[in-house]
Amino acid sequence: MWLTLLYSCTGGAALLYALYRWVIPAAVQYHGGLALLWHDIIVERMLDTLTQSTRPQRLLGAVQKNATRGDPRSVVKAIDEFCRHKEWAMNVGDEKGCILDSVVSELNPATVLELGTYCGYSTVRIASLLPPHAKLITLEFNPDYAKIACQVIAWAGLEDKVIRKLQRNIYKMIHGTQNLTFLCV
């Protein structure tokens, strides 16, 4: 009886491992909806339960472990590495980030409004390229994301360039913004 139980557990573990490592990743490559379901519902909830932390908290931990305090480029690189090798997260990424960098550099905006901060990746990326007296106003609806973003922005040393707002009424905020040069959504 114990031997049967041992074989059942071993076989179940091998089956779950095969599904996790090969079958499911192969399926999600060919169907975007499956990829979203797999990463955002199954894997993220499993990791949240196992680590007793959320993906944004794990991303912040990667920044604190791998980035140099006060160096925005190292913060961006740490987040890119985390998203490429550890967990998928909502960020611009290094390839599209180069395009964003060139647009920000070309426009040289005095004021930027960002709608949706998430963990602060694009906030750090944009704010690091702004001229000395420019400001980036970033709005976040989710207070948990806003808390993580504040810490990421502080780690990058960009608190003086970024005005963070936890805002549920975006129209109210945009109405009060004067001389907007660049809008990032």
UniProtKB/TrEMBL annotation:
Belongs to the class I-like SAM-binding methyltransferase superfamily. Cation-dependent O-methyltransferase family. One of its GO terms (biological process) is catecholamine catabolic process. It comes from Amphilophus citrinellus (Midas cichlid). Keywords: Catecholamine metabolism, Methyltransferase, Neurotransmitter degradation, S-adenosyl-L-methionine, Transferase. InterPro entries: SAM-dependent_MTases_sf, SAM_O-MeTrfase. It is an enzyme of class 2 (transferase). One of its GO terms (molecular function) is catechol O-methyltransferase activity. This is catechol O-methyltransferase. Its EC number is 2.1.1.6.
